[in-house]
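Supplementary Text 2. Reproducibility record for the structural model of the 394-residue chain.

All settings were left at their defaults, and a single model was retained for analysis rather than an ensemble. We include the record here because the model underlies the residue-level annotations in Supplementary Table 4.
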Amino acid sequence: MSPDPRHDIYRFDELLTQDECELRDRVRGWVDDAFLPRVNEFWSQGSMPGDLFPELGRLGVLGTSLSAPGCPGRSARATGIAMRELERGDSGLRTFASVQGSLAMKAISLFGDDAQRTECLPAMARGELLGCFGLSEPSAGSNPGGMDTTARRDGDDWIIDGTKKWIGNADIAHRAVIWAQTTDHGDPKGIRGFLVDTSAAGYHAIPMDNKYSLRCGRTCTITLDAVRVPRDGLLPGSEIGLRAPLTCLDQARFGIVWGVLGAAEACLDEALAYAGTRTAFDRQLASYQLVQDKLASMLTELTRGQALAARLSELFEAGEATGEQISLAKQANVETAQLVARTARELLGGVGILDEFASMRHMINLESVATYEGTRDIHRLALGRWLTGIQAFR
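Retained model, structure tokens:
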């Protein structure tokens, strides 16, 4: 189940440890055997069945690099490898794993207490207890600090009111990590994180239907109507402000940097196979100079993305990755994958719109990946601020 060596002209996979190679091959085999034969069914239905989630737990792709109770505790690069192989199947599949492991589990691991970690993380790593991460809102996407959701003190409890939008897995989650503006006896205190039992009265998650993109993913709107959260539902390590949720988003963006390379690889695979068998004007399509130029461009872009992911993994492992480095890699690798997917669909010609081919599905999915976890413009502004020292968001 090893990758096609034509994907890896600079032999980056030779840098992997034996454990990382085994994880790569195990996830790749599962995607090929268990997921891809059913992906069009999931796409048509607009969801994935729940029986897949424990399988992902058995593969070790949920909270892969977390060193916490019941978690795999592998390297940062192992998380990237797993996300790459999942997104080779579909961005929605990788998104589920990212929401579960990089957002919900990461928040509990970093900012929860021992009781919360012990209760939740082992079951979440197995895919038996599902989580979601409620940060963005209808009027507060790129600017999470503008959120309207509130949590007010009521004795020892908290009462949460508000709406969250574009929240993955929220309709199937057992626990929701909700970020809210806190008040204590009417005095504003700032943003904190809460671990909310989704069976609580007043919690409602409604799937967002009629999506053109990310149809295998589960995307929802959450309404919180006077949801009562006991004192032990507060994530005690979530210091007031946005540092805590943004730390989780950085972990998820790292997964995206690797994940989109899987989508790009799948598209390059498909384009190579089609160009090698399709005849046009009595010649093999792959024999034309224009076609070879497109294929070479796809490989070049993919290799640039692999280099970014490899270096970012080293920085993550050393604990030295910065927000600017993550922003650069996220927007750059998404654009790389978009270019590769569009070129593959172009090379497929008319048949590229049929569901027996994957490139158009990847191309459409990547429109969502380009939007969530920070748009291109937001990440470019972060880089501009780093370069100039001038804040240009407002």
